[in-house]
Amino acid sequence: MQKDNNTCNKKKTENNTEKRNSCFSWRENELRTRRSTSAQRRPQPQQKHIEMMHCLTRFSRVGHPVFTSRCRLLHAITIDKYPELLEHCIQTKSLKHGKMIHQHLLKNDSNYYNGNRNYFVLEKITRFYLICDRLGLARNVFDEIPEPTVILWNLMIRAYAWNGPFEASLDLYSQMLVSGVIPSKYTFPFVLKACSGLSAIEPGKMIHSHALRLGLDSDVYVSTALLDLYAKCGDLARAENVFYGMQCRDIVAWNAMIAGFSAHGFFDDMMRLFGDMQEAGISPNSSTIVTMLPAVAQASGLSHGKEIHGYSVRRGFSKAVMVGTGLVDMYGKCGCISYARTIFDLLGVKNEVTWSAMIGAYVASDQMREALILFDHMLLEESSRSPPLVALCCALRACTKLIDLTNGRRIHGCILKSGFLSDLMVSNTSLSMYAKCGILDDAAMFFQEMNPVDRVSYGAMISGCVQNGNSLQALDTFRKMQLSGIDPDEATMLALLPACSHLASLKYGACTHGYSVIRGFVADTSICNALIDMYAKCGKVKTAREVFNRMHKRDIISWNSMIAGYGIHGLGSDALALFGELRNTGLMPDGITFISLLIACTHSGLVAEGKYWFDSMVREFQIIPRVDHCICMVDLLGRAGLLREARSFIDKMPCMPNVHVWSALLAACKIHKDVELAEEAAKRIHSLGPESSGNFVLLSNIYSCAGRWEDAASIRITQSNQGFKKRPGCSWVEINGVIHAFTGGDNSHPQSEQIYKKLKELLTETKKLGYEAVPGVVFQDVEEEEKEHILVYHSEKLAIAFATISLSPSQPIFVTKNLRVCGDCHDVIKYITLVTKREITVRDTSRFHHFKDGVCSCGDFW
DNA sequence: TTAGGGTTAG
């Protein structure tokens, strides 16, 4: 019987949407007719259950015990004692004795089950189970009562609205209407709460109409529940209608309306209402403050946050753990980490949310070491409890940002110990940590073993692939995501687009753009920013500008991406013009704007402009130069041949020069063949370490150029001894949507023979026009012929030869390289454009080189 | 009251 009932109830819940639609067509005039037939409509006890009760009765008819106030079974009782005893159990919440009475009733009183049941006692038992939080048992008894009172219906609806499943609450409300019972003013707050929990606004609207018909909508509890439902569901206009229609608004109503504005990001409305509330003579309470703080944090409304903080202190709320935690979170998200920490330290009582909020605040403020220190502190102070899930996730994110695999593994261990790995958010955070810490194979294995996975898991994997330089794997993961039936969202596209940018794959980039249009993602500023970057890096700077022009709303990243896009194409004047437009918008440039602008000036040789804007950055925009800006300046001056000025700039830098500053100078020395300064730069790099293989190569090549072969060889030996390997050059070209990659001297391509044949032909033709292998870029004192042989096999030459035989003569060639293009290749490509009458574009790590009619857009200045 | 994958430069 119970099982049958449960199955029946389960089915009822599963079909609740259908039922809701049917029951909510309830009309007031149907109510009276249904009421008269309600007894027939209620489920009758099943035969099986009756037989079981008879059986129990036969076995245990041994008298009726009763227990005293000391809860001991003493002597026999009669039926009329049940209500009194049950009431006692309700008052004392004594589950054991209440159950005993229930069992006794089932065993010994067949009168209850032979058609003359005392349903008053069953109602008491239902109430008893509800008060003891035994909702399932309460439901079983409740279902035996043919005509429960409206009070009992309300108690059952309330129990489901508080404990869930919310569907059951709505389901019971429907049954109540069908059985002909008229809801009371107590019914609506509970059933509306269940609607809120389900975000079920349409059923909520129908229930609203029921309350209206019964004239109960003016009740302050009913109207507050209605406004709370509308506010939670984001229908703030409807919520305001209810709110302003209320004759009497208590603090709960004000708080519900404020919570609606807060939860949906209507910061200004929320603050306005906070003021109105006080003007109306209602003093905000701690719930008001707790509700408001997340919206303040989201809007970074620090000044308002401080006002609310002051108010909380004056009212004595700030010491309450929930208010204090809200303040920690608000200050953390507004960038005032020291305020957050002070409040955290002063809080007498901290709960797990407080710890998590403070650790999260450090992560949000880019203070990862402090986040991990506090996490360890928490482990010590709260050693009796397992660490909270959110704090674990925050600490793991700190490790991810630090690329700290050791601590990441340790925290992952804590997660395994706590048994949280089944939580999808935790496993996604762990996946992201492994992927971003560079152990992509482990991350891929972890991902494969994850069950279930969601779009965040795929996003983490795609992003991890891109950040580890494996963009092809990122595209492959995206393909698998589509096959799995999980729909990508904006974040997925934002992870994927850099893969297209990195590969310079216009085909995939354009597909991603098309997909984003279909899904309506292009309304998102971040998506457009990523599209600008993608088109610019795929060689389509005009398309990038079209995306930029069509944007409805641009943020500073939009402008920075476009300025950087012009920069890598050597369009310094366009970058400066766009920067001028930016100044007219009133949007404040940031540090990255100036890095992009300085790079654009560097690639176009606009030295005076670069120097002017560097000074202006400090003077006009009060941006303190970071080491990244200084690297740009050394690059700008050095490439222009102003080596002494670059050297002097380093001395005057407002921050300590790092390896990259000296590397920029070393690169400039290579271009302008200044061996003496190069040696100083190399020494500085050596003292700062760790060095990169690029610097060994640069210095070695400088010595080679100067004919100092022994020094060049010595550098190479040092490089080898210190375990630095030269990063292999790799170039690739996309032909009909397939990416073909080549390394130096590569003969693995299926068309390798034809490629080398074509390259030989091209070189023969270029030599007729005057091409000679450029000396000085080969690191050894080798014979000229052999030097030429080494250069022949550079990856960009192989990619160009392959593109020449794969594309029709009218099609331009676009090659991408993972290092800077070498001087000899740069020279020979110019000749190849003369021989083939083709346009060739090479994107290296620094910029674009557009070759046409024997000339490169970089003006041989890169 | 806290929380997972995401866009620009270097």
UniProtKB/TrEMBL annotation:
<feature type="repeat" description="PPR">
    <location>
        <begin position="250"/>
        <end position="284"/>
    </location>
</feature>
<protein>
    <submittedName>
        <fullName>Pentatricopeptide repeat-containing protein At3g16610</fullName>
    </submittedName>
</protein>
<feature type="compositionally biased region" description="Basic and acidic residues">
    <location>
        <begin position="11"/>
        <end position="22"/>
    </location>
</feature>
<dbReference type="InterPro" id="IPR002885">
    <property type="entry name" value="PPR_rpt"/>
</dbReference>
<dbReference type="InterPro" id="IPR032867">
    <property type="entry name" value="DYW_dom"/>
</dbReference>
<comment type="similarity">
    <text>Belongs to the PPR family. PCMP-H subfamily.</text>
</comment>
<feature type="repeat" description="PPR">
    <location>
        <begin position="149"/>
        <end position="183"/>
    </location>
</feature>
<feature type="repeat" description="PPR">
    <location>
        <begin position="524"/>
        <end position="558"/>
    </location>
</feature>
<feature type="repeat" description="PPR">
    <location>
        <begin position="454"/>
        <end position="488"/>
    </location>
</feature>
<dbReference type="InterPro" id="IPR011990">
    <property type="entry name" value="TPR-like_helical_dom_sf"/>
</dbReference>
<dbReference type="Pfam" id="PF01535">
    <property type="entry name" value="PPR"/>
</dbReference>
<dbReference type="InterPro" id="IPR046849">
    <property type="entry name" value="E2_motif"/>
</dbReference>
<dbReference type="Pfam" id="PF14432">
    <property type="entry name" value="DYW_deaminase"/>
</dbReference>
<dbReference type="InterPro" id="IPR046848">
    <property type="entry name" value="E_motif"/>
</dbReference>
<keyword id="KW-0677">Repeat</keyword>
<dbReference type="GO" id="GO:0003729">
    <property type="term" value="F:mRNA binding"/>
</dbReference>
<dbReference type="GO" id="GO:0009451">
    <property type="term" value="P:RNA modification"/>
</dbReference>
<dbReference type="GO" id="GO:0008270">
    <property type="term" value="F:zinc ion binding"/>
</dbReference>
<dbReference type="Pfam" id="PF20430">
    <property type="entry name" value="Eplus_motif"/>
</dbReference>
<dbReference type="Pfam" id="PF13041">
    <property type="entry name" value="PPR_2"/>
</dbReference>
<feature type="region of interest" description="Disordered">
    <location>
        <begin position="1"/>
        <end position="22"/>
    </location>
</feature>
<dbReference type="Pfam" id="PF20431">
    <property type="entry name" value="E_motif"/>
</dbReference>
<feature type="domain" description="DYW">
    <location>
        <begin position="770"/>
        <end position="862"/>
    </location>
</feature>
<dbReference type="InterPro" id="IPR046960">
    <property type="entry name" value="PPR_At4g14850-like_plant"/>
</dbReference>
<feature type="repeat" description="PPR">
    <location>
        <begin position="351"/>
        <end position="385"/>
    </location>
</feature>
